[in-house]
Amino acid sequence: MRICRFADDRVGLVRGDLVHDVTAALDALGPYSYPLPRHDPMVAALPDLMATMERLADETEGRPWAGLDLLPPLANPGKIVAAPVNYLKHLEEARGDEGIHFKNQVEVIERVGCFLKATSSMIGAGKAVRIRFPERRNDHELELVAVIGRTADRVSAKDALDHVAAYTIGLDMTVRGPEERSMRKSIDTYSVLGPWMVTADEFGDPSDVDIELTVNGEMRQKANTRDLIFGVADLIEWTSSYYTLHPGDVIFTGTPQGVGPVNGGDVIRATIDRIGTLTVAVEQES
Ligand code: MN
Predict the structure, then answer these.
(1) How far is the CA of 82 from the centre of ligand 1 (A)?
(2) Three-state SS for 86?
(3) Structure pTM?
(4) N or C end of the chain: which has fewer CB within 10 A?
(5) What's the CA-to-centroid distance between 255 and ligand 1, angstroms?
C-alpha cells in the first residue's frame, strides 16, 4: 500500500497514477487531549486502518497525483534519526574533499553513532527546498528512509524489520560547515520526504534496493543499499539500544557517494526502486 498526504492535510492511497482520498479513515483516531502522544497516531494505527483505507479507495474516484501539493507522508514523527557516512565510498569522498569535511575529522559511523534532525525541517515534494545560506555549499543527500511502526526498545537486528511500518525516499539536505550536523541539517525545508510511503509488506527487503539522484537531469548519485555499512535492521538495533523508537519515528539510513551542491533554480529527482521518484525544486530564500 502506498500512502501519501496532500493539499490541506488530506490522506491518499496511491494506485498507479492516481490518488484516492481516504482521509475519512482517520476518523477512527483520537480524540486526543493534552499531553499529545509522542508518536505519530496514523502510523501507530496503520495495521487497523489499512482495510478501511482500501475500502474507501475502492469507493472514491482517483485524481492524478502529478500536480498535487504533496506533503510529507506522515505528519507527526516524534524524531528524525539519521545515520552519517554509512556508505564506504561516501566516507572516502568526504575525507578527500575539504568542501565536505571542513577540517573536521570525518569519523566512521561505528565511532560517532547517529544524529537527530529537527522535525520542523520536514517538507513533502509539493514544496521547495529553500536555500537559506547561499554563500555556503548546500548539498543533496539521497537516502532510503524507514518509518517505524511499532515501539522498539532494545530490539535485536533479527527482530528489527518487524518494527518497520513503511519506507520512503528522503533528502537529507545539508549546509556544509564546521557546526554540528544536527544544526546544519535542520534548516527549515532540509528534510524532504515522499512522494509517498510504501508499507513494509509491499516494499519487502530493504537490503538490496537501487537508489539514484539527478540534478537538472545530470546523474549525481547511483548506488544500492547492499553497500550500507549499517543496514536498516542494524540501525534499529543500535539506535533502539540508546532510545525508544516510537511509531512514526523516521530513520534516514545515510547517503552514498556523489553528494554535491545545489542552488536556487535546480530540480532534484530522487528515485528509489519499489517506491518511485521524488521531484523537488530548489529555491533561494529571499
Ligand atoms: Mn545524510
Answers:
(1) 6
(2) coil
(3) 0.97
(4) C
(5) 5
